[in-house]
Here is the input.
Amino acid sequence: MEIIKINNMSKRFAVGNSHFTALNKINLTLNEGEFTGLVGPSGSGKTTLLNIIGSLDVPSEGKIEVLGKSIADLSHKESAQLRNLHLGFIFQTYNLLPVYTVYENVEFALLLQKMGASERRKAVLEALEWVGLSEKIKSKPSQLSGGESQRVAIARAMVKKPKLVLADEPTANLDSENSHNILKTMLKLNEELKTTFVFATHDEKVMSYLKRMISLADGQITKDEIQ
Here is the structure.
């Protein structure tokens, strides 16, 4: 099943009286259950592409469909609904809410959905068990290590069992041991839940776990390899 379908898509940003082409005529298809990375140096276009896939931005031309929805045709409300119901996001900055506990940070992702309190609790506890943080439910972010904070971010992304998770440099602030633990956790969730993962990264540790690697340079795909 096709999760993402991109046809001849470009993205330009205005720069003074001119423009900068961040993505240039991208063609790409990603299927359900893939563990894929968009790799390349800073400025290659990988984060821009990830943002458009996540409906945080729209293309300048061409077409992109995510879970059967044309991103350019979605209203602001429809884009928000797509993200809230079907997408999970993991960033290099954990974006945890400091005044809330680990439990509350993960539950936050479910509050916009029509889900009863007992159902929410079951989902949160299950997500924290996936990432090995069941004993930290009452802790605040300030009491966590970097690796633990990123695992909370993964639990928050996964708690609604999204069809697609987008991860932008998720290991950038972690040491080698924590990076490998985080990646093993995400790979396990990919295999057990069939969740599709798409990374934007230039971290070789992340690349070693990818099942498919899509290389970008100057806004174009230069290589697409099954690992």
Summary: Residues 2-226 form a domain with the Rossmann fold fold (CATH 3.40.50.300).
